[in-house]
Amino acid sequence: xxxxxxxxxxxxxxxxxxxxxxxxxxxxxxxxxxxxxxxxxxxxxxxxxxxxxxxxxxxxxxxxxxxxxxxxxxxxxxxxxxxxxxxxxxxxxxxxxxxxxxxxxxxxxxxxxxxxxxxxxxxxxxxxxxxxxxxxxxxxxxxxxxxxxxxxxxxxxxxxxxxxxxxxxxxxxxxxxxxxxxxxxxxxx
Length: 189
Prior knowledge:
Oligomer: single chain
CATH architecture: Alpha-Beta Complex
Keywords: Ligase
Protein name: 2'-5' RNA ligase
Organism: Bradyrhizobium japonicum
CATH class: Alpha Beta
GO molecular function, one term: ligase activity
Largest sheet: 4 strands, antiparallel
Distance between the termini: 49 Å
Pfam families: 2_5_RNA_ligase2
């Protein structure tokens, strides 16, 4: 069993990524993302149990995101990992917050315990759209990715710790709204 720590979108803005899941599913024999029954997310680290316990991973996530707020992320490109199998994913715009959270997690838990693709220097922030692109549809899937030409903003509002397979949330915390409310001299908003 594996343990992952993530930031996920549990609000209506996630529907934009979920529609892309459906677009990408036509290139798969079986739609890979819908079957997870888990919302759009960005994964910071994946550990194998029992080397790292879920509580250890969750404590690192809480420490990394302390004082953090809901995180708006814009995706402008669809990219792919060659595989096999080919994997399509939405590329987030550069985010200092994502980088800081990942660095904090890596400082809290020795990255040697993390899957290689999630270690510092190798980690590529991504929101997976499809993990099982059929061999015969790879060229069409890449053409779809290259033709993507619109920005999508998604609000990531929950940090969590999951075990899988199957995906089961073992801990989660809603991120607060990041807007600051200032009072005027009259005491009103």
